[in-house]
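Reviewer 2 asked us to include a model.

Predict the structure of this chain.
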Amino acid sequence: MARAGTRILDSGETLPDLTMATVLHGQITAPEAFGSAWGVLLVYRAHW
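Predicted model (structure tokens):
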């Protein structure tokens, strides 16, 4: 499971605020970018 601090997120819980740069749309903040709908957040690290 994903971790937010020391607490484990569970199904149905809100994602903590994350601001990130995108390739096409500048910066977005999740979960705000999804509104009240379900969404998928795919993070591609590109290099280890």
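The chain has a mean pLDDT of 78. Residues 15-48 form one domain. We have added this to the supplementary material.
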